[in-house]
Design goal:
Layout (H helix, E strand, L loop, with lengths): L8 H29 L6 H4 L2 H17 L4 H28 L1
Helix pairs in contact: 1-4, 3-4
Length: 99
């Protein structure tokens, strides 16, 4: 996605602010899908599936490189997000199984 041409510091900051909110919206959508995953798992071990996490990390690192971003930055961000969303999925799994 090509950024639009801005004419002032305020314009640039405004565009960055919009993108930041879009990023949060996308994370919220991802988190909602994570909650749905809990319905399809039969154990907490399935939630913490390292091979799936590795697959995700490798894919987003490669995409980050394609987009001209630091793959280490992308990996760090995704590890933080995945770790937190795994906890969300575990909580959802426990809630579903207790019903």
């Amino acid at each position: 996605m090509k950024p639009k041409e801005c004419n002032s510091l305020e314009d640039v900051r405004g565009e960055i602010d919009k993108i930041d909110l879009q990023i949060v919206d996308l994370m919220a959508t991802r988190n909602n899908y994570i909650k749905q995953l809990a319905r399809f798992k039969d154990s907490i071990d399935k939630i913490k599936e390292e091979s799936r996490i590795d697959t995700v990390i490798n894919r987003v690192r490669a995409h980050g490189i394609e987009q001209g971003l630091s793959p280490n930055l992308i990996e760090e961000i995704f590890h933080i997000m995945i770790d937190n969303m795994v906890e969300t999925e575990i909580a959802e799994f426990r809630n579903i199984k207790s019903l």
